[in-house]
Amino acid sequence: MLDSSLLEQLKSVFASLENTVELVVENSTHDDNKDLLEMLNEVASTSDKITVRNSGGTSPMPQFHIAYKGKPTGIVFKGIPGGHEFTSLILAILNTDGKGKALDSLMASRVKRLKKNITIQSYISLTCENCPDVVQALNQFALVHGSMRHEIIDGGYVQDDVQALGIQGVPSLVANSKMFHSGRIQLLDLLTKLENTFGVDDSAPVEEPVNKNLGHFDTLVIGGGPAGASAAIYTVRKGLSVAMITEKIGGQVQETKGIENLISVVYTEGPQLAAQLNQHVASYPIKLFENRRVKKIHTKDGIKAIELESGEHLTADAVIVTTGAKWRELNVEGEKDYLGRGVAYCPHCDGPFYKGKKVAVIGGGNSGVEAAIDLAGIVREVVVFEYNDQLKADKILVDKLKSLPNASIITSAKTQKVIGDGQKVTQLEYVDRSLDKTEKIDLDGVFVQIGLVPNSQFLKDTVNLSKFGEIIVDEKGRTSEAGIYAAGDVTTTPYKQIVIAMGEGAKAALAAFEDRMYKHN
User: Which intervals hold domain Thioredoxin-like fold (predicted)?
Assistant: First the structure.
């Protein structure tokens, strides 16, 4: 099942294991159980610290849990963790023995304060690119928490449960037979959602002070995408002390599938590029603070004081903002009500749920038309809705879309409302702007692809923003506030491309260094 080159890589990955990690398998008569046993035994063959044993229990589907020092860790896999979830298995083994990348002390302290005896079920698909991030975060939470059970469930094995819960998107998180989240989510937001869903034990000790001073740096880079990585590397190479604050290295790149226009790289994918950015940043003495968001920046005596949402704070001589952008929402009635039950943002992740069904794609730019082309190979019918009187996508994409027999286009359409029956989406209401007439169309799903919103809200009272919320910068990345620079998709720089963001990050770093030299001379 696993090829020889991968097995050799795993030998190296698991070489650091010190204690035995057990993969405890349930008895199952399911035809796929033999494939699960084959995979787990092959993984175990790469290290004498990994063992496979039978629990003596039974399950209608392939299932196993991870145990450590004779005790369950709370991590349960229901299904065969192949595809994108194979990495989740490998990281779970490493994290169980404390050898993977651990949560920092502040995040761990918050996890430990969650109420006890929590069970979370993550319904996933092996083709879902957003699922591993959520799965891996919850696995780490389970290990830190001590009485959390996290069940990773391949929805393909439990279609009755998927139907009963009304799941039409992944990952979908369920507690007490009720879905409390669906779709991609950052680790910070995920932890906040768990705190709101399950509650916090206020009597538990606070292990990390919330007002911790993280120190002073010559330059602080906010954001960990291509622009941020470039800015940090260019700055540290000038011999300056550099810190980086980010939710996660890679930023929006993590959600990009195929990348074919990064010059000198014929083809790569978002997660792979994000890993390479991480590796490059880690090769320099850059102080990285992950899973953090900036709340506010203000200037005092020429020094930038930065407050974090976590309550922590730090200071810097200069700040380079590279916080990128996030997917824009429709902000119409019914959109949030049916998230994960007919409303989706990732065609690659959620498209398979709509096989043989009729869906809409909102947005006629490149991302929308590309999504429609991909979905056309899965669904019965796809309809693209565009607000303007013609599609904005590149001609080659539009021509491809028009050639598809099960794809159609509606222009001059303003989305008004997502309509459902309480369980799932059934209709989309829109205004035909050319006739000023309200129309409804029957369908099963709505994929939103209407562009990006700059992550600049924390700067609205600090620097000048455009009417679209972009940070206004000059030709060197300077903002309206001396000592604050910006680069990448969060700025007014035209053309939101990875290669441009990297160049703009380098430019902003060089400008900050240049200004520093003039200031000190």
Answer: 124-193
- Give the pLDDT confidence score for residue 521 in this predicted structure: 65
114 and 82 share a domain? Answer: yes
Give the integer Cα–Cα distance in Å for 434 and 416. 15
- The 3 state secondary structure assigned to 285-353 is CEEEEECCCEEEEEEECCEEEEEECCCCEEEEEEEEECCCEEECCCCCECCCCCECCCEECCHHHHHHH
Measured N-to-C along each axis, helices 226-236 and 270-282 cross at an angle, to the nearest 10 degrees, of 20
The token duo for 354 is 């709509």
Place of tokens 């780490």: 140
Whether residues 433 and 480 share a domain: the answer is no
Residue 376 lies in a domain: yes
Structural domain of residue 147, as residue ranges?
4-198
Residue 340: predicted pLDDT: 84
Domain CATH number, residue 64: 3.40.30.80
**Cα within 13 Å of Cα(166), Cβ side:** 22
Is residue 358 part of an annotated ligand binding site?
A: yes
Strand partners, 242: 219, 286
Q: Is 219 flagged in the annotation as binding?
A: yes
CB 106 within 8 A of CB 312: yes
- Which CATH number do you get for residue 291? 3.50.50.60
| C-alpha gyration radius of the chain | 24
Question: Residue 344, annotated ligand binder?
Answer: no
Q: What does the angle CA 65 – CA 67 – CA 73 come to, to the nearest 5 degrees?
A: 80
CB 174 within 8 A of CB 168: no
Whether residues 151 and 193 fall in one domain: yes
Q: How many domains does the chain have?
A: 3
Q: Is the same domain home to 429 and 467?
A: no
Q: Which amino acid is at 87?
A: T
Question: Quick one: pLDDT at residue 430?
Answer: 98
Which sequence positions are flagged as catalytic? 346, 349-350
Q: Which two tokens stand for residue 351?
A: 């498209």
Per-residue pLDDT of 155-174, as tens digits, reads 999 999 998 998 888 899 99
Do 13 and 106 fall within a single domain? Answer: yes
Is 223 annotated as belonging to a binding site?
yes
Q: Look at residue 332 and tell me if it is in a domain.
A: no
Measure the CA–CA gap between 280 and 254, rounded to whole angstroms: 16
Instruction: Tell me: do 222 and 256 sit in the same domain.
Output: yes
47 is in an annotated binding site: no
pLDDT at 27: 95
β-pairing verdict for 172-175 and 118-124: antiparallel
- 128 pLDDT band (50/70/90 cuts)? confident
* pLDDT tens digits, one per residue of 495-505: 888 999 999 99
